[in-house]
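Good morning,

Attaching, inline, the backbone tokens for the sequence recovery test we're adding to the shared suite. The designed sequence is right after.
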């Protein structure tokens, strides 16, 4: 069910300053650049910046890659997780969701055909 680590989202209240800073740090422009989300391809993994999150309380969200987000979502709930962020399309063929595991941890999943790590 889990394909591996794919995406980490950092809370970045000032998305323009965050975009500039991470562009300088990473030495590359983002592959996705919108007011609601900025995404960088870093060696086949995604670093995302999201302005509607508070870095002090929301922290980073890690998303594990899945082949089929609905199947993974259903399985996680069956295993005792509770919904945190319902499945949503975030552009093109990319879908994300998050659950709270039985121990209180945020567990994100992402179906993103743009990031396939080679075996």
């Amino acid at each position: 069910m889990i394909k591996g680590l794919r995406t980490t989202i950092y809370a970045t209240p000032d998305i323009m300053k965050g975009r500039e800073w991470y562009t300088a740090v990473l030495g590359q422009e983002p592959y996705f650049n919108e007011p609601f989300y900025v995404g960088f391809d870093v060696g086949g993994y995604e670093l995302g910046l999201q302005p509607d999150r508070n870095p002090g309380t929301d922290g980073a969200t890690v998303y594990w890659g899945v082949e089929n987000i609905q199947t993974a979502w259903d399985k996680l709930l069956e295993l005792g997780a509770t919904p945190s962020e319902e499945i949503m399309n975030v552009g093109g063929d990319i879908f994300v969701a998050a659950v709270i595991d039985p121990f209180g941890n945020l567990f994100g999943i992402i179906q993103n055909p743009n990031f396939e790590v080679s075996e």
